[in-house]
Amino acid sequence: MIVADYTFYDKFYAPHTHFPKLRKSYHKLPSLYSFDLEQARLEYLNICKVTPLKPFEFLGNNGNLRKRISYQGLGLSSRVSKESCYDALSLYNPQGHIDIFKTFAKSSDTLPPENREIEKLDESGFSILTSACNSFYSNIIGRFKSPFTKVRFLELKPGGMIPNHFDFPYYQGIRIHACLHSNQNVIWNVEGEEFSIPSDGHFYWFDTGKYHSVVNNSNESRIVLSINLSVYFDRSGNPLHDANTDLFQLIDQGLI
């Protein structure tokens, strides 16, 4: 059993940087960002008829396998099937491609967490709508003020698990999820704190700058609209907010 080292990412937070570690693991966004869940589900089905989700391990339409090394047990396979348990479809991407695109420079997402080059995080190129995004979802995404980076539909199949891993500190990017389909047997975990994100037409933020995992213990797929936002810096790396600006105040005031 691999035990997560909760100290290795201390260097990304105060006193090592100006940015404090966040006090909460997840947070509900205000109704400004909410949407009609039933319509969202219908639009999702219509999109999938034309551009279905693909296994996360595949880069694109050419069928090439993504070079992804398992780290901290992050092998995206189901406990009940040898097939991929994690499918994805991009709504924003470089050049507008639908491909799952490498996030970190120098393939650092293939390295163990302690060696990942977080300072090389580069999602600034995720700036163009793909053909998979229709007007309904474009309207939802357009409510956010911060630069978009990765915007995807993600499906975690029954029995699927995304084991403990770390992505990036919140000031380099935040991730919010709206569950189109989920239930109480889909369990999220951030540094040992477990919770469920309901399928209720609302967005929820959770801290990807700490170790986090998800397991689907149900017999239904968990399907989310996942949006990454660069709240503190623009696409050129210029500051939008300083380290004293509270993320939760920005969220609650509809400023992200």
Characterise the protein shown here:
The protein is of the alpha+beta class. The protein has one domain. The chain is 11% helix and 24% strand. It has three helices and twelve strands, in the order βαβββαββββββββα. The protein has helices at 37-50, 135-141, 247-252, and strands at 26-28, 54-55, 86-93, 128-129, 148-156, 161-165, 174-181, 186-190, 193-195, 204-206, 212-216, 222-229. The strands form two sheets. Strands 1, 2, 3, 4, 5, 7, 10 and 12 form an eight-stranded antiparallel β-sheet that branches. A four-stranded antiparallel β-sheet has the order 6-11-8-9, with no helix packed on it. A hairpin with a 2-residue loop joins strand 8 (186-190) and strand 9. The longest helix has 14 residues, at 37-50. The chain is globular and about 50 Å long. The chain starts with 25 loop residues before the first strand and ends with a helix. Residues 58-84, 100-111 and 114-121 have low confidence and may be disordered.
What secondary-structure arrangement, pairings included, does this model have?
Elements: E1 26-28, H1 37-50, E2 54-55, E3 86-93, E4 128-129, H2 135-141, E5 148-156, E6 161-165, E7 174-181, E8 186-190, E9 193-195, E10 204-206, E11 212-216, E12 222-229, H3 247-252
Antiparallel strand pairs: 1-10, 2-3, 3-4, 3-5, 5-12, 6-11, 7-10, 7-12, 8-9, 8-11
Q: What's the order of the H and E elements?
A: EHEEEHEEEEEEEEH
The number of E-state strands comes to 12
- Helical stretch tally: 3
Overall outline? globular
| Whole-number total of structural domains | 1
Tell me the fraction of residues in β-strands, as a range. Answer: 15-25%
- Which structural class best describes the helix and strand composition? alpha+beta
Give the C-alpha Rg. Answer: 17 Å
Which regions are unreliable across 5 or more consecutive residues at pLDDT < 50? 58-84, 100-111, 114-121
Question: What is the helical fraction, as a range of percent?
Answer: 10-25%
Biggest sheet, open or closed, and with what strands and sense? 8 strands, antiparallel
What's the overall average pLDDT, rounded? Answer: 78
Distance between the amino and carboxyl termini = 38 Å
